[in-house]
Amino acid sequence: MSKQINFTIDGRSVECQSGESILDVARREGFYIPTMCYLAKATPNASCRMCVVEVEGVDGLVLSCNTPAIEGASITTESDILYKERQNIMKLYNVNHPLQCGVCDKSGECDLQNKTTEFDLAEQTFATQEQKRKKKKWGVLSYDPYLCIMCEKCTSVCNEVVGSEALYIKPGGYKSVIDNHFGDCIQCGECISVCPVGAMASSDFKYNSNAWELQKVPSACAHCSSACNLEYEVKHSGIDSSGSSEIYRVTNEDDFDSLCGAGRFGYDYENRVAIKDEKAFNSAVEAFKNADTIKFNSMITNEEALILQRLKDKNGYRLVNEEARNYQNFMNSYSSVSGTSLYSGDLQAIKDSDYVITLGSSVSRDNPMIRFALATAVNINRANVAYLHPIEDYKLENLVTQFIRYEVGSEEGVMAMLLEAFASDEAKEEQKAFFSELDMGYISGESNVNEDEIKNLKSKMLRKKSPVIVIGADVMAHPSSSNIAKMVALLEKSSEFKVVIIPTNTNTLGVSMICDLDSEEGSSVVGYNVHAATTLCALGDGDLDMPALNQQEGTFTSIDKRVVPLNAALPHAGYELNDIAIALGVESEETINYTSELPTSKGFKSVEFDSLENYYTNGGEAIRGYLLDNKKIKTKKADEAISNITELEDYNGSVIYSVDHISQFNTFTNKTHQIIDKANLIGSEQFAMAAKIKGGQKVKFMFNGKEITRVFNLDSHLKGTVARHSTFDLHDSTSSGKYRYTKVQIQEEGN
Question: For site-directed labelling of 111, which of 131, 498, 648, 698 has its Cα 20 to 30 A away?
Fold first, then answer.
């Protein structure tokens, strides 16, 4: 347990835990200490020296960012000496800094601009000869070395938080610049967000608007289950726009939180509708009256999910969402052993961990915030990360300590090997029938995972205190997903492991808790953002236009088991799901009236939408919505819990793995103008030889009952006979509940 430290800041007594820095404590307690290079979510690099303070009895000034508080210390944060020191530092920062504030994108929110004023720099009394340096453009990112103050925040966030290690300092004294290993850059824009000046800028946003002209709309990212906090920045479209607005950019609380490329740049997916189409609305209502099934995906709010459930309760519809039902079934099986409705871990648990195992997830692509959390765990806690998957992810090479490749379809056997290695003796005795039947040699042979690999994995856990296992989307639709879920729960109950079970899509967790989902659709189907005989769609290609998630108020349930609010950045002139519900006799004046009616029996709270908080404290704590209550669940008897391992299905031949590019998640990100990745098939030389195809060739194959055409691209980083297949351009990919690996017959197009 950490030791409690008592000391004073500017004469006021404060407390902290041993090891906390003076700066962190001061911020939390409301004391202002200026900084230029400090980033709360990364380790201090102490390059700016603006954070100096005086400590009684200590000669000279002390850097508060990397100096821990000590018992009885007396700290002074403001004095004439400190003011003069900080003023001199600002004079150095301003040497030859271009006087282009009038056209600089950072003007109005620039740390250099603000602190130049704060420390009363009316003139610059010295200069130095300017050095010639090249401006750079790296995709979504533009870099101006003449504006750069070499604070190192961009390199810190790239290396420690994102973990890509793309940005680095190219040394040269006064000629020093930031450079980019562009092949390693994942185009997340974190460097743009943390840059205190205009050196790192969005290529798309440059010269489009002044910061003070933009209206900030706080919301949640709609692209994956992390539901990251963000602010849409909105302004009128132009002088000839007839009053319409558009989103100019997305920002976030960059000191404490992060966004991936999809969240930062994939914002313009709104469905612009000029007027309400009454004829289309009436036709949709009639379709609902004649339908027996509503088919939908998990890119909806909790409130919309509750509307669908109320429609089912009133009119007897079947609710079909295969992907969410798989997750629902997985969690039900998990709960039958764990005795709780929710898994124990979250993103913070991963960040705080010193030992992480991931199973059944392409982490970089399924949920980028898990990748960011792994980077923090590795760089701050020196965590051991084991990545278990049929395909090695070269984007994680610098984070992964041990990669274990297993055969496609063998997730159940691999989970059994992990359980046998880490479960307590008491658990093994309780589940004696299961463990006695385990043939580790057979499982090892079928999965192609050597028993020594698991022994090595276990040996690395010695002296580790905070292990976490992350379970991904690959296992949700596995034929033995129920048994895998029970093994995951037993591992959690019988060891120190915390568990994170990644919700497959944006609001999969919320939908799975709110809706009573059916396995099969009927004969007359209405689709909500899913193609059907009658389709309500936010993409603008259905029978009745619906608002996109950046045009709605409501809530998501995130991977952190937190109900978080989203607000409408842009208006929607058409109809919404609540209008359909009212026409069908399920009446509520506003969609957000359902927020307080979310089922408390499942862990939601009776909190009105307008009462949901959304801010950060000075110390960096996120106050967003509320945490779900983790309900107690009746467990099964030991002899009913875990079944024997089933025989592995044959996956010989050409196999494709449905997984998208790092910033492409679905048809909505595919609609945005800055995310330009194309859907393709990517494989190794070995895959190409086995399938008898070549790089750059157009190929075709059957996928989910439809013929798909793709360009095949070779990737020298990939090995084996499993290729990555992008599905973000396929309309119903987000509702698919199929196992992510598919055996296919690939042909050259035209044959």
Answer: 131
Which of 43, 261, 20, 264 lies closest to 161 in space, CA to CA?
Answer: 43
- For residue 52, the domain's CATH number is 3.10.20.740
Domains of the chain: total: 4
* Cα gap 312→592, rounded to integer Å: 19
Quote the pTM value. Answer: 0.95
Question: Which of 501, 522, 544 finishes a domain?
Answer: 501
Amino acid code (one letter) for 572: H
DSSP 3-state of 379:
helix
Q: Is 412 helix (H, G, I), strand (E, B) or coil?
A: helix
128: confidence class by pLDDT, cuts 50, 70, 90: confident
**DSSP per-residue string spanning 467-520:** EEEEE-GGGTTSTTHHHHHHHHHHHHHTSS-EEEE--SSTTHHHHHHH----SS
**Assigned domain for 364 exists:** yes
Q: What is the DSSP letter of 549?
A: G
> Quick check: is 477 in a domain?
yes
> CA 247, CA 602: separation in Å to the nearest integer?
35
pLDDT band at 749 (very low <50, low <70, confident <90, very high): confident
At a CB cut-off of 8 Å and minimum separation 6, what does 322 contact? 735, 736, 737, 738
Give the type of residue at 188. Answer: C
- Write out the residue range of the structural domain in which residue 88 sits: 4-93
The two structure tokens encoding residue 187: 């185009």
Quickly tell me which residue has 């058409």 as its tokens.
574
> Which of 513-517, 531-535, 649-653, 663-667 is least confident?
649-653
Domain endpoint, select from 442, 475, 501: 501
Q: What pLDDT does 735 receive?
A: 57
